[in-house]
Write a structure and sequence with these properties.
The structure is a homodimer. By secondary structure, chain A is mainly α. In chain A, 62% of the residues lie in helices and 3% in strands. Chains A, B: Pfam families: Peptidase_M32.
């Protein structure tokens, strides 16, 4: 449960991640990090609701004392954890409202209200009574270990496991440290905004020193087992169980193959893009919003359990799985941002709407991790939403909403939306050059954490790495190492999630394709619900049943994170667009 | 602090009143009942910020120990009370969102989240540590009583007084009783909706028995000093310090004079109303919304500290004085509801935006009472918004937004909007027949509380009283004693606030007129800010400084609630419209 731990650790409020997103100039995900979840126990693990219920039923009809007491003790934990989750849901609404509805004059009052709520949440998270309830449940479960069936099903045991993990993480962070972290984030954000605006690395560098040292301290304090591996402790906040070593191994395998593919594409024939697909006054934002809503509806986003609104910095948030709120933005100058952003955010939103309803407000219904959440948005945005099949669905809708595009065919649209253009800015990158941006940041973060890269050297290293991984020259700090909000938000270790998420997306889609042989034909017709349902059963409802992303991937696809499949997918994606030779 | 006490008593959540409004088919006020407030210490009492500050300054420079300790002890209370207020502000946002933004599928999750937040609030309200802090502050203040100046200014002393009052009220209500009250409200609401729909008194009667008995129990439990006067205890929830005896005295003086005025109007010449002012497709709702926004802006509603949205059941709510959210509704069939409703809600909203900012989140910045809040909406809706001067302002705006009204003059518009038509439904009543509806309900509530009216007799008594006070025949329960949401919400004692508020509005406007001799000329020109400022200084910022409405009225207008002035105002209002003789 990376998100949960990140929140528990970074700030005394669950809104840590949302905070980052609020300030982001990017489309950093801001799904709720902590609280609620939904549906029937995942069939993918062989578990089903029917299977779990008897376990409980047995106990109430004639099980031995330890069993009954394990259930009672478990329920006592659940009661406390649900209260916390509900209050975190309230915090989720405050954040959404702040970014979409709140009048400008109420920032101070809202800040005070969020702090009051965060204090309530923190008090409950660190309540010694919760610790005692956890101990009692663990003891009872341990005492009943010999009994068959287990007094708790696997989902219940996972909730207990993660409730313990969150409790320990939160207890280890003192109020003083939490306050210092929050205060540094607020200060650093202002310094970063000003430095980026002034294109002045030196204005930010001293702050980065403090940020690195505080990030280390906070990560290691909450994760004493990782005391000698501070970067692993940081990564664990977003992707639990993941390590820098494992990431380095995966990235090392990826780097040369992506480089080769980028070279191949650079030597290929770029697609012709008709001028009518560029921005302009024809791209009325109301019509863009209508198109986005039509796409979201087709994708299976349930508007009876969510909303779609406009925000300056798009995100997905909201207070509950039954109330998931997507935001997006539309401009006439960049007409594809609206629909692409909607597809991306709907991907996040479907994960949220699909939380396991049987375990609502319990840890096992939480999304597994940052990368897992990102996999859901990227599966829809890059894998489905940029496919040829999708553009057969989208083209007639586009003609309806924007008659000036009447001559554009699905293949032309598909090619136009799959251009590759390596550049300086991560958030503007196509999905082929995107991982290079992550490699740059991963290398530098590792160096900052282990001391092999000095803060003063970051601009130079950034430029070298960008040349190596992306093939571009960095002219200045503003378009280089000052472009991201993450470090000022103390989110060291967050970047790898983007690429891990993209790889996971490809891997999941491969498994889905095996289960849904007609997938392309369904997508062409705008029938997205079979895919949504497959994801719901195999990922969304599974929630945090497994303790890591690799475990989930093995259970769903038969293997851990897969480099080969990822590169093959990318090549197949761009081959028809750039006329690459068959391989 | 009627609202605060009502909330503290009715439900473990401050949202009690908002609950009622949510369910209301009427335009029951749903301003936030409990939390925040704003501005400089009221000049009206001779107090000023400058005057108060030295009192504090003195202490820090060389006052005796008891003084310094009184301030510390006071601050310790404030710290706790502010936390509660902030959480109540969050509850205010949840309520607003529920009625304007929340998708229909999230009612259950929202209910659980509201309950979790309410439990946090209740825990803090009844925390023994708050009791100890109050005792310490009271003891220190008492010990310092001989010192001059007092260690606390009058606003601070009022906050302490009301913090004590709220603490005692909340502590006296057990969790069991609070839960029973909440559960009965929920159950009764459903029964009432069904009974009203089916026009079936007998379906509601047994529930009313339970409601009366529970209302008595709850009111008396929280107010043991009123144990032998349960209706007074109920009234005290909304209008503190008010009694049935005082209301009976005021109403007794009003009744014959209103009756005489109604007769006079009935014998007068009703105004001609041009057909173009009736509903129809010309009354585009978007244009109505634009007109309402223009009016709200002119009235001085600060959009940087609030919003204006649409809701099925209009109310004013929101999380803070810097974030006051008005809702209204527009229909082509009833084009005047939108602008009238907006003027009414802006009246409430200005009170909220005008809370004393110096004492934000402290009890003294709370609105004084239900009637006082209602006085603010009615002052604007009935006294200002239905005046001849206002229609000189409104008419050109109306022509701009609705060209089909181009031939309507201010006087014709004024007359059209001042028709008197006694009818069956309270919420549709003109302001001359409105008090009659209140007399009916007051008499019946008194009877239900003292046992002189049996539940079974309510329909008969209702019909008799409506004949007597309003002059109409009641055909059935749906348009009679089943029309109001209040009883099912346990809001016995609430109705009188409407008429007391109307009287207070007239009395305040009289005082404002003395201070602002050019008021009519200002209103004609749409210059409402001088009146808003007068209200801000004399009412809004004064908040809960005084312990009762009569005390406030004496301070601002020189006399308690005034029957004569009220009747004179009404006669003067209708005389030109109905051609009444000079008196």
């Amino acid at each position: 449960m990376g998100p949960r731990s990140a929140a528990a650790f970074l700030l005394p409020t669950p809104a840590a991640a949302l905070h980052i997103a609020t300030r982001s100039t990017t489309r950093l995900v801001a799904h709720r990090r902590t609280a609620l979840r939904s549906p029937l126990a995942g069939s993918r693990s062989g578990g089903s609701r029917a299977r779990h219920v008897p376990a409980t039923a047995t106990m109430t009809t004639g099980a031995p004392a330890p069993t009954a007491s394990a259930r009672d003790a478990y329920e006592a934990v659940c009661e406390r954890v649900r209260e916390i989750s509900r209050l975190e849901g309230v915090a989720g609404l405050l954040n959404w409202d702040e970014q979409t509805m709140m009048p400008e004059g109420s920032a101070a009052a809202r800040g005070a209200q969020k702090a009051a709520l965060a204090a309530c949440v923190h008090d409950k998270q660190t309540d010694a009574a919760l610790g005692a309830a956890l101990e009692a449940a663990e003891a009872a479960l341990s005492a009943a270990a010999a009994s068959e069936p287990s007094p708790l099903n696997e989902y219940e045991r996972a909730s207990l496991r993660d409730a313990r993990r969150s409790y320990d993480l939160t207890r280890r962070t003192s109020r003083e440290l939490a306050a210092r972290v929050a205060s540094l984030q607020a200060e650093a954000h202002g310094v970063w905004v000003a430095a980026r605006k002034a294109n002045d690395w030196d204005a930010f560098a001293p702050m980065l020193e403090r940020l690195v040292s505080t990030a280390k301290e906070a990560a290691v304090t909450s994760r004493p087992a990782l005391a000698d591996r501070p970067y692993d402790a940081c990564i664990d906040m977003f992707e639990r169980g993941m390590t820098a070593a494992r990431l380095a191994e995966v990235f090392a395998a990826l780097k040369p193959r992506l480089k080769a593919l980028l070279d191949e594409v650079a030597a290929g024939t770029p697609p012709d893009v008709p001028a009518c697909l560029d921005g302009g006054p024809e791209w009325d934002v109301e019509r863009q919003a209508a198109l986005s809503k039509a796409v979201a509806t087709a994708m299976g986003f349930e508007f009876s359990k969510g909303r779609l609104d406009v925000a300056v910095h798009p995100f997905t948030g909201g207070p509950a799985p039954t109330d998931v709120r997507i935001t997006t933005r539309y401009s006439t100058g960049n007409p594809w941002e609206g629909v692409s952003g909607t597809v991306h955010e709907v991907g996040h939103a479907l994960y949220e709407q699909g939380r396991n309803a049987t375990y609502v407000d319990l840890p096992v219904a939480d999304p597994l991790s940052m990368a897992c959440h990102e996999s859901q948005s990227l599966l829809w945005e890059f894998c489905v939403g940029q496919s040829r099949a999708f553009h057969k669905f989208l083209t007639p809708l586009l003609h309806d909403h924007f008659p000036h595009t009447a001559d554009v065919t699905p293949d032309v649209l598909h090619a136009a939306r799959n251009r590759v253009a390596p550049g300086l800015i991560r958030v503007d990158a196509d999905c082929l050059s995107y991982p290079g941006h992550i490699f740059v940041r991963f290398d530098i973060e590792q160096g900052l954490m282990d001391g092999s890269v000095a803060v003063a050297d970051v601009p130079r290293v950034w430029a070298e790495k960008m040349r190596e991984y992306v093939g571009v020259e960095v002219p200045d700090a503003a378009s280089g190492c000052l472009q991201d909000v993450h470090w000022s938000g103390l989110a060291f270790g967050y970047f790898p999630s983007y690429t891990v998420g993209a790889m996971m997306a490809v891997q999941l889609l491969g498994a889905a394709r095996q289960a849904l042989p007609d997938l392309d034909a369904q997508v062409e017709k705008g029938e997205f619900v079979p895919l949504r349902e497959w994801l719901r059963v195999n990922v969304h409802e599974v929630g945090s049943l497994y303790a890591s992303l690799d475990e989930l991937l093995v259970a769903v696809t038969g293997r851990p994170l897969d480099v080969d499949g990822y590169v093959e997918f990318l090549r197949a994606k761009y081959a028809p667009v750039y006329g690459l030779a068959d391989k």
